[in-house]
Structures are given as structure tokens and as C-alpha cells.
């Protein structure tokens, strides 16, 4: 035995190699890395109890091993050796996990998606790595919960919830109203999203022109002072307007049928007025120009017109003209135009 130990020590001294223990020896049962493996470096904030030569798994199958673990600043860098037939995307992720509650640590890989592939010497950054929960952390959290942690609060919540659910009618009504509310919100989600988008655009517009908004607010101050000074008259006006609205509503409600009947009775008159067309304005024009309408001027052939007017204002004639009855009297007003009269210059 002494000769074997001396021989081994002599070999180490002659070769000049360092020996760090069993991890430097090639042990059976490791993964088959093939003839041309490649290395990928993964950065972790904490590698827990991960050791060199730990397994590297992909979809639960061991495909590689941990080559080296070293500290770089405040995080750890783990070199992974993988066979050439294991190809990982540049979006691949790595996670330090544990086989069981007290089992060994290993690195679990997710291949990711994308066209780019990880090559020899590439890195998996901190954003793409994570670690599992340690047994010590679970036991510590359980200890805090049991020793003055959240059990009292859980008991209070359970008691209050049981008290609230004791009255089944109120609970059912509350749940029905809650369902109605949630359904209404779900039906209006597009409008809510549109309102939020409009508010976002408004906020951006206000943010782009803060000086304009500030000037508008300063200019609005005098108007607000005027409104404040006129508050009592405005309130009084609105109160009277409310009473007027009530009276108007009552009048329309009580006389609505009569108003509709009057409008229907007025419809034939308006229809005939519309049908009269141009005749009505011409008739009004003749009445306003009586007793010298435009038609009288067509009888003139010269520069002037001799007109003789006879007026009969006897009672019988006046009553006959007013009532349209024939009482034996003559016309109340008559104009006689000679045929040989001349029209005055400049007249129509």
C-alpha cells in the first residue's frame, strides 16, 4: 500500500498536474456528450447548492453537465457542456431546480423559439435564468406563519366570511347584482377601452401644449369669478325655469288633445293657402292700391288720365255693399275712365 501511494504521488509530481479530488476524475454514468460538445455560459443570481458535474436536463432528460461554476461580481456564471445534437434558440432559458425535497440540484433548460441558435461560447443572460425555492425558505415561511404569522388573520377572515354568508338571501342578491355588474362591464369593454384610448390621446395633447392649458386656466379664472358673483341669480333662474317646465308639462298634458285637434282643424286652411300660390299676394297688392290699381293705368293711351269718381254713401247702398244683398241702391264707389284720356308722363 505504501508503494502504491508513493507511486501515485510520484506520477502526480512528474506530470505537474493539479488534483482537486474526485471531481477531476472521469466517473462512469455521466451523459454522453459525443465527440464534439460545445459550451454555453448561463448567468444566475444564485446557484444554491449546485456543484460541478451536476446534470443539465432538457425536457426532463439529461443531455449535458455543468463544467464549471465561478463568481463574476454579484452573480454566478455556470458553464454548461452540451452535445452537438442539442440545439438551443437564442431565447432559451435556464433554471436551477432540485430532483426532490432533499435531492440533488440540476440545471433545467427550455429550448425557446426563434430561428437563431446558441453556438459555442454564447451566453444566457440573467433575464433568462431563475432558480427554484429552497427547502429552507419553505420551512422558514412556515415557521413565520405558525409563530404569530397570518393564522390569526386567516381565522378572522374565515369567521367574518361565515357571518356574511349566514344570511343566504342577502348573499344571493349580492351575487346576482355582482353578476349583473360584471356582465354589464364585459358588454361595455369596447367602449371602456375606447374611452381610455381617448383619455390617453387627451393626456398626450395636454402634455404637448402645457403652456396653452395654463393660459386657458388663467383666462378661465375671471369667468369663474363672474359666475360665482352671479350664483344666486343663476340659482333663482334655474328654480323658476324648473317651475316653468312643470307648468308647461302640466298644460301640455291637460290640453294636448285640444291642441292636436286645433292643429288638425287648421290643416285645411293652411293647405288652401299653400294652393293659392301667387294669387294671394296679387290680391293683397290690389287691396293696398285701391282705388287706383295697376289695371287702371292700362286704360290710358296718352300722357294723362281723366278719372271721375261717384260715391254713394246712403245707408241702403252701404248695407248692400257690406252684406252683398241687393237693396236697390247704386254702387258705393265707382271710377269712370274715358277711352280717349291721355296718360301723364312718368306715370305707370
From TrEMBL:
<dbReference type="Pfam" id="PF11887">
    <property type="entry name" value="Mce4_CUP1"/>
</dbReference>
<dbReference type="InterPro" id="IPR024516">
    <property type="entry name" value="Mce_C"/>
</dbReference>
<feature type="signal peptide">
    <location>
        <begin position="1"/>
        <end position="20"/>
    </location>
</feature>
<dbReference type="Pfam" id="PF02470">
    <property type="entry name" value="MlaD"/>
</dbReference>
<feature type="domain" description="Mce/MlaD">
    <location>
        <begin position="37"/>
        <end position="112"/>
    </location>
</feature>
<dbReference type="InterPro" id="IPR003399">
    <property type="entry name" value="Mce/MlaD"/>
</dbReference>
<feature type="domain" description="Mammalian cell entry C-terminal">
    <location>
        <begin position="116"/>
        <end position="281"/>
    </location>
</feature>
<dbReference type="InterPro" id="IPR052336">
    <property type="entry name" value="MlaD_Phospholipid_Transporter"/>
</dbReference>
<keyword id="KW-0732">Signal</keyword>
<dbReference type="InterPro" id="IPR005693">
    <property type="entry name" value="Mce"/>
</dbReference>
<protein>
    <submittedName>
        <fullName>Phospholipid/cholesterol/gamma-HCH transport system substrate-binding protein</fullName>
    </submittedName>
</protein>
